Amino acid sequence: MIPTLVAFSLLAAFLVTLFETLKVKEGKIKAVFLAGILSSWLIFGYVTTKMPLSEIIGNHAKEAGIQVSLDIYSFYFILAELILFSLVAVYSMSYFKQRAKNGKIYALLLLMHAGLLGAFISRDLFNYYIYMEVASVSSFALVALSDEKGAKKAAYKYLAFSLVASYLFIFAIGIIYLKTGYLNVELIKSSVVVSREINVALAVAFSALILKAGIFPLHFWLPDAHSKAPNPISALLSGIVVKAPIYGMLLLYLALPIEESLLNLLTLIAFSSMLVGVIFALLQKNAKRLLAYHTVSQMGYVLLGIATSNPLGAIYYAFAHTLFKGGLFLSIGTLINAQKTKDLEKLTYRHDKILMTSIIMLSLAIGGIPPFIGAFGKKFLLSNLNGIRLYLFYIAGIGTLVSFTKLNYYLMEPGKAIKSNLTQKVLSLIIAVLTLAFGVYFGLVISYRDLLVILVAILTFWLLQRVGFFNITLKKYFGESMEETGREVNAYMVLFSLFLLVLLLQSF
Amino acid sequence: MKMSTVVRTTTKLISPFLVTYAAYLMVYGHLSPGGGFQAGVILAVSVILLITSHGYKRVRKKFKFKEVGIIESSSAVFLVCIGLVGVLFGGFFYNFLNGGKFGSLLSGGIVPLFNIAVGLKVGAAFTFLFYILLRWVESD
């Protein structure tokens, strides 16, 4: 029953392309598109009643078939995907209204939907890889859809690095298959003998997945791709597409014993990503770039969950991040759509009560303030930390809050009152309310300490503004021309090779 | 762009054989080396050979852009439907057509159907790709 979750959205995607070639009316194409999304909700609703559930496709033997499962490890990823994707689907219908032909966009969106769902249910490394690729290939095309200057180049960079990561990942899967004879996660776990080859495979696979998830220091493609994509697509990319590699790390964690030294290195990477992402975000003047750098930082939190052998923390934080980052991209995207600028200093939500509420709620959620959902994931992540790690974690949290104080400070300044689209506003509000609702559902309560944290954040913001920290402009090393892009890709490729070397050599 | 008479006649002669070979690979994929993907590539090659020898514009009149698109997407729809029908018999992609003597054509169940769908999909997709790329290159 579980694979039909993917099958119906794939069917809808192919039907949309068929209708597009047959020149069927736009209304019917939209109906198929929505039916594809609704079907996955219905099947998900039916399947979750029997959780935990496991199945081999085609009723083959476990050694020969592909295993798919629905349990705690997949459930929150799928739930987050379905919530965000459904809201974005409705949003993009209003966003892409002025374009002449939307069939292709709907087909690509459905393919991405199917790819992500397929990746999140699979318990087989190769099957996971295939579906992650389906999702990322459609996201390259969706990034390139944008009319903005530089979007094609951003899509090209995204494509280049994402494919490098995929090839290395499949190489690592090859090594694991060679040493254990299985691709199924449970069978690998039962038959693995730790050897140097397995450690190499783990290092290669982790560096590939870190590149694909856009974690510092391999984040270079992410801010461009996520900030230059069309607004609803940015929400999907930052919200859920970067979670697919995280699920891969989870599968590796479930399948293979990971050495302590590699875990320590991953913890270091996670903390550097959390902190550096926030520092870069603080310096941004472009609203979408600011959010994109926060994705770099927040993915560090999720990696931290895996690095400290705390998969539940990673899962809950990934779930929370999907909701609030998707919501932030949608709500700030709504402002950008109406006011036709991405400059923080020109954007304003002063006249718009709905967007103001949703952006403030989502900002509190990303800062980890209860009773919003972000705090629940953080509580899980904190349970395994002590000493200096705990302080670094708090510093990153306060940095995030400072950055969002800055965002709200600029957005609060009065400006010209331009009405934004009502559908888009309501969708942003829905996702903001969901972050609150899930937080309350998980049993979070307000405490006075969180008010203190907010006060500290506001004070730090005020201090930093006094010092003139926000006026620093980052030097650009690479120009806009195509040749410069080639040089940029080469330089980052060298950086990636070095990173790979460090991860490979850490066990010696 | 037109090539010489020798090339054009040869490709015209070879192309139908390639199509036959592709059909064989599709149908007998489960019994002999081959299968859907290889068959699809050979199917596409038969069209691509004609394009290189006769030029894009002439070939496009016979194998229309829209028809190629329809074959591509409908074979994909068929492919998913095979998998979905299996759910009624006990599992996604369950081989519900059984029968036939071991080693005969019918013993494959849904595998030949699957191979045919994959072959058509791959062949049409490759042709489609060539059409789209040639739009920018072709100047005759």
Descriptive notes:
The complex is a heterodimer of chains A (508) and B (140). With 508 residues, chain A is an all-alpha fold. Helices cover 74% and strands 2% of the residues of chain A. In chain A, helix 4 packs antiparallel against helix 5. Chain A starts with a helix and ends with a helix. In chain B, helix 1 packs antiparallel against helix 2 (36-54), helix 1 packs antiparallel against helix 5 and helix 4 packs antiparallel against helix 5. Chain B has 5 helices and no strands. Chain B has one domain (5-137). Chains A and B meet through helix 1 of A and helix 4 of B.
Key structural traits:
heterodimer, A: 508 residues, two-stranded antiparallel sheet, globular, B: mainly alpha, 0% strand
Portion of residues within helices of chain A: over 70%
> How does the helix and strand content of chain B classify structurally?
mainly alpha
Broad structural category of chain A = mainly alpha
Biggest interface and which pair forms it? A-B, 19 and 20 residues
Distance between the termini of chain B: 6 Å
Biggest sheet record of chain B: none
Mean pLDDT of chain A: 87
Beta-strand portion of chain A reads under 5%
Question: Kindly state the mean pLDDT of chain B as a whole number?
Answer: 86
Unreliable sequence segments of chain A: none
| Total strands of chain B | 0
Chain oligomer state:
heterodimer
